[in-house]
Known about the structure:
By secondary structure, the chain is of the alpha+beta class.
Amino acid sequence: MANGCLPMTSASTRAARSPWEIRHGKFTSAFTLVEMILAIGVAAIVLVAVNAVLFAALHLREVTTDVVDAATPVDQTFLLLRRDLQCVVTPTNGTSKVLSGGFRAGTGISSTGVSEPVAAEMFTATGALSANAPWADIQRVTYELKTALDGSGRRDLYRTVSRNLLSINTPDVADELLLNGVESVKFTCYDGSRWNDAWDTTDVTSLTTNLPLAVRVEIQMAGASKLTEPIQLVVPIDSQSRTNAVIATN
């Protein structure tokens, strides 16, 4: 090879090259039709596999979201029920006591300020002090079913709260929607030996003038099969009065 000169090529090599290659001094390369078809086929298979995985992931996310959304109101309802029952105050036993209140559960119970019968009425120390509610922490709480306002005919579970218990007028109540589409809600009370469908501490002639040892709440959702068990919650009651009668002393 001489300095500054291109390498020498044989005549056979030059003959194998095209005139354009010989003129420009380089070779060109390209994909064949078979290679292009194979590449497109592999890409299509990969896209189909990715699409199947993506579709399955999106479907799983939707199902999980529906399950979580359906369970969230139930969890919130049970959280409120457990807190109200655990903080229930000692009963009045038909008398007027300080920092106390009645406990009633059963069917056909009427509560002041609530238009429809309630499943349970209790006085519980779960109230929070605020600028709009400058009263004590004891509040009256009821749980009841009300007909939905959308005209569907379904019944919804509500929690109704009354804070100003010393008002001489009809107390203002605040309704809180807990669950949509509830067929029934039932409170049963345990006296130490059996579960009772009714409990009323405000009746001085009744034997149930003290709080029950535990309360069981059963919620049957509408549309569920008859074989489907209702959602249950059992809450033990720690607050108990020492006697069912008022002791008078000099």
